[in-house]
Amino acid sequence: MRKIIILVLTLVYTISICFSQDTITKKSGEDIQAKVLEVTLTEIKYKKFENQNGPTYSILKSNVQMIIYENRTKDIFNEGKQYESIPAPGPSTSDLYIQGQRDASKYYRGYKGAGTGTLITSLVSPLVGLIPAIACSAAQPKEINLNYPNVDLMKDPNYYDGYTQRSKKIKQGKVWTNWGIGLGVNLVAAIILSTLE
What we know:
Blueprint: H1 2-18, E1 22-26, E2 31-39, E3 43-48, E4 57-60, E5 64-68, E6 74-78, E7 81-82, H2 93-107, H3 112-124, H4 126-138, H5 151-154, H6 157-196
Helix pairs in contact: 1-6, 2-6, 3-4, 3-6, 4-6
C-alpha cells in the first residue's frame, strides 16, 4: 500500500511540475525551463526553474522566439517586437491566428462544466474521474461555450483555428488540474485513514 501511495504522489508531483514552469524558447530552438521574473523592452530576466533560489539570469529579447508561461499563455517575439496589440487592418494569416489565441486566453470560460464534472467524479474516485477527464479533454469546446468577442473574426479560418485550439488547450488544462485535485484529496484522505488504523 505504501508503494502505491508513493507512486501516486510521485505521479501527481510530476504532473504539477509539468504545468508550473515557464518555457523560454530561443530563436535557436533551445528551450529554457524557467520562472520569468520580468520582461523589459530589451531583455527577459528569469531564474532557472530547477534553482529558483539561485542567481537571476537575463537574455536579450531579440534572441527569444517566445515565452510559454505556466498558465499556458504565450508571448511571441518577432525581430524585437512583441505581439501585444490587436493587428492593424489587413492583418496577415499568422497575426489572425495569434490574435485568436490571445482572445481565447482572454474570453474563453466555457470549461467550467467540464472542469466541475471532472472534479466531482474525481473526488468520488480518481479512477472513475479519469473517464470524464479523458472525454472532456479530447472533445472540442462547444460553439455555444466559446464566448468569442467578434462574430466576424470567427468567420476567418485562421482566427477560428487559433481561438478554438487555444480554447481546447485551456479546457484540457483545467480538466486535468481538477482531476489532479480530486486525486490529491483522495490520497490525503487515504493517508489520514491509514494512519488512524
